[in-house]
Amino acid sequence: MRSLHTALVHYPILDAQGGIVTTAITNLDVHDIARSSKSYGCESYFLIHPVSAQRELVERIQGHWREGASAKRIPDRKTALAIARVVPSLEAMFDSFGGRSGVELWATSARKEGMTITTYAEARTMLEGEGKPVCMLFGTGWGMPRSILDACDRLLEPIASHASDYNHLSVRAAAAITLDRLFGDG
Amino acid sequence: MRSLHTALVHYPILDAQGGIVTTAITNLDVHDIARSSKSYGCESYFLIHPVSAQRELVERIQGHWREGASAKRIPDRKTALAIARVVPSLEAMFDSFGGRSGVELWATSARKEGMTITTYAEARTMLEGEGKPVCMLFGTGWGMPRSILDACDRLLEPIASHASDYNHLSVRAAAAITLDRLFGDG
What we know:
The structure is a homodimer of 186-residue chains. With 186 residues, chain A is of the alpha/beta class. Chain A is built from eight helices and nine strands. Chain A has a seven-stranded parallel beta sheet with strand order 5-4-1-8-6-9-7. The first copy, chain A, has a two-stranded antiparallel ribbon with strand order 2-3. In chain A, strand 2 (13-14) and strand 3 (20-21) form a beta hairpin.
């Protein structure tokens, strides 16, 4: 089985008008996606943010749950937050894998001309085999720009339901669902 | 296809020591579970809370996204929050279905002696057919007490992954995954 990692991108990110922005760290993104990542066997959860004060915020949250009063109240949380790793850029994340060639980048994307989309059934089979670690990228804000999707090695089909045309999941929900589709027993 | 509804229970709820408590409304529970519910075609998302000041908080959040500055910034959010309904108790929720017999209550549960557990494959088939509306209950805090599980018409298997023994999903993640397993295209 290949090792799976998650990453939450805060820059470069699209805003509502299609411009490129940096989004702020959200406390519950740290907690929820760390808990989901750990529950589906991910080895690390990267929070990618170019601003050092924002990276320090994540480290303070981790410290609070590792050593603070909350560590006693909910000891399980420490285990999830321990896999969270804060890095300034995608390039810095690649260093953890020995460089860009040491990891496969995956993301979900709406189907666009000229792009091959992988189904979740195909992706599950790929993860069961041997190969490089896989890092599943998730975007904050209005999602990741084309430049990041173009840099991915594989694009998975977007999450959808036959029961609704409305499709505006939070990134916390989208990450949980993606992990369940890749590694869940359902 | 049967109609699906979600409900988030804030009382009676278990605390870490197994006692019965009332939990506080969390802003992102309102948003995330409304967005997930709407994205999977649910007709309503009930927030069950016995304290009127907490119920008013949900109504203020809804108003802010229906009429406030945020309504212009993210118009899609209004559509999701419009299905949120705040009620003081399970009994008050039953009234929306013409009484207890007008709805089937479902929840997830770890397998316990003397209980029949439904798989997600079975549940999907049940939802495709004809029948009463189904309301999927989710618990805050440390989960719902046995008294609520005993009152359910059907218990689904707990969410699990073969990739991990750690299993501490947020309720926002658990709700998203459950809806995807019931109505997703994955």
